[in-house]
Amino acid sequence: MVSELELAEIEFQNAAETATSVPEYRPLHFDITYNLSTVLERKGLTAESCAQLRRTAFIYVDLLAHPAEPPGGYGASGESFLRDVAGPRIQARARRIGCDITLTAQPSTP
User: Fold this and answer.
1) So what's the pLDDT on residue 22?
2) How far is 32 from 69, CA to CA, in rounded Å?
3) What is the mean pLDDT of each run of 10 residues along the chain (110 residues)?
4) How far apart are CA 105 and CA 109, in angstroms?
5) SS3 of 99, please?
6) What are the extents of the domains in the chain?
7) Residue 11, pLDDT score
8) Contact present, 1 and 35 (Cβ < 8 Å)
9) Do you find a cis peptide bond into 71, omega within 30 degrees of 0?
10) Using CB atoms within 10 A of its CB, is residue 15 exposed (0-12), middle (13-18) or buried (19+)?
């Protein structure tokens, strides 16, 4: 992912496409979208990186709202991992690329 950005982007795009056939694997989707956002940021494609980061944030909120054991969740340590590690990383990237995201559940509109 450091030097072969084109190949990394292709591989993460392929992984994202494959992952759509296994929707219960939310951590997998989280990792794929976050890593694809990383590659796109490094390539200077900030709008595309932001789009993936928004998907990551949506999955982040869902994982916190609906914790589960693997494969559908991160298990007992999931909340601390998400809040203490993943959340700050997502927010840092969002600030770097100027991406407006939220890491809290949005109230539903009637």
Assistant:
1) 75
2) 19
3) 82 87 83 96 96 96 92 90 96 98 70
4) 12
5) coil
6) 5-97
7) 92
8) yes
9) yes
10) middle
Q: What is the pLDDT of residue 66?
A: 93
Closest to 74 in 3D by CA, of 83, 109, 57: 83
Sign of CA dihedral 87, 104, 59, 52: negative
DSSP letters spanning 46-95: HHHHHHHHHHHHHHHHHHHHS--STTTS--TTHHHHIIIIIHHHHHHHHH
Q: How far is CA 68 from the centre of its chain?
A: 17
H or E element: which one contains 26?
Answer: helix 26-42
As given in the structure block, the two tokens for residue 44 are 């200077």
Helix axes 87-97, 46-65, angle to 10 degrees: 160
Q: Alpha-carbon distance 47 to 98, whole Å?
A: 9
